[in-house]
Amino acid sequence: MRTPGVAFGRILSRVLLAALALLVLISCETISYYGQAAKGQLSLLMGRKEIQSLLNDAALPAETRRKLALILEAREFAKDNLLLEPGSSYLSYVELDRRYVVWNVFAAPEFSTRAQTWCYPIAGCVSYRGYFSEHSAREFTDSLAREQLDVYSGGVDAYSTLGWFNDPLTSAVLQRSDHGLVALLFHELAHRRVYLPGDTTFNESFATFVEQEGLRRWLQVHPQKGLLAELEREALIDQAFVALVSRYRDKLDVLYGESLDEELMRIEKSKVQEALREEYAGFREQWDYRGYDRWFAGPLNNAQLGTVGSYNDLVPGFAGLLEQSEGDLARFYAEVTELSKLGAEQRAQLLSEAGL
Asked: Distance between terminal CA atoms of the chain?
């Protein structure tokens, strides 16, 4: 049996080794950023409690008990039915003293929808930078804004360390509905199955599709009256939302390609953003849905609009790929793995063809 002191030593060694590798390999990044990342990750790992032990505690609140038990059941389903590889992740739980586990910061040039990226040895280049403190995320956001970049920041209630650590479940996710909690688990475990360093859209679209397909299969085994119809309606609303945002992102791309002076460009950009808000007003009435109100309270700038594409642009392609694999997930994952070995343009082309 591993003693607490040995366990702590191994965890600390691994965190420090990862932090040292980051510091050595990426000299352009600041020590303070990696310091907070290592400290934040370590606090999660050291604050973990085994879910099974918590379930044996009679003092555990009933709703917390039910949702932790649900996670263990969903883990087994993910392994046996979705061929995902949970390892020892999500067998532990951490009670947080904050609403989110991390806050991600996104940025893009003032006159381009192409997201700024930050590069790391493990994850490759990604279009966001994560902070374990909302205050630190806000400070970084402000510093980017002073550089005339479009910026956007949002809280995240879960993330994957891609198998480097045994990721815990956090209290931040327990507010989710049962099916939302299960879907989140499938999404994060998908990152452990296939991950391509440096391609955020590929990785997030893949995980989003696995989340959707996994939830569909879960509900076939765990049917809930009326829920499937509700989710199908929500899927249509999500598709309409993505199409709406993508259309205006394309309009901005066209605008940024024009030869206008900066002041006029800003005026025209503001008009496109306002038109998007006005069309959303009709959207919410058409669908009788207010779920995106908080999102539309944001700046609707290049950075924010880019977050929608990262999670959705390639989902139809992955859906087509599974259909070509006749619903066989083993074949599907093999095809995705082969795709990940190709160049970015070839990957995008093949997924585009698959999604037709």
From this structure: 54
Q: Is residue 268 predicted with pLDDT exceeding 90?
A: yes
- How far is 219 from 216, CA to CA, in rounded Å? 5
Query: Which of 166, 218, 220 has the alpha carbon at shortest distance from 188?
Result: 166
One-letter amino acid for residue 43 of the chain = S
What strands, in cross-sheet order, belong to the sheet with 129-131?
129-131, 102-109, 149-156
8: confidence class by pLDDT, cuts 50, 70, 90: very low
| Coil, strand or helix at 49 | strand
pLDDT tens digits along 86-142: 999 999 999 999 999 999 999 999 999 999 998 876 778 888 999 999 999 999 999
- Residues 85 and 79 sit within 8 Å (Cβ to Cβ): yes
Q: pTM of this prediction?
A: 0.85
CB 78 within 8 A of CB 214: yes
Torsion sign across C-alpha atoms 87, 90, 91, 94: positive
Structure-token pair, residue 19: 């932090």
DSSP letter for 149, please.
E
Instruction: Please work out, in degrees rounded to the nearest 5, the angle formed at the alpha carbon of residue 107 by the alpha carbons of 18 and 237.
Output: 105
| CA triple 315-208-213, angle to 5 deg | 85
- What integer is the mean pLDDT of 280-294? 95
Give me the count of residues in the chain.
Answer: 356
Q: Summarize pLDDT for 211-232 with one digit per residue, the tens.
A: 999 999 999 999 888 888 888 8
Question: 3-state SS of the chain: helix, strand, coil percent to 5?
Answer: 60, 10, 30
Q: Give the pair of three-digit tokens for residue 247.
A: 């259309």
DSSP 172: G
Question: CB under 8 Å to 274, separation ≥6 — which residues?
Answer: none
Residue with tokens 């008990």: 65
Tokens of 163: 């198998």
DSSP lists the bridge partners of residue 129 as: 105
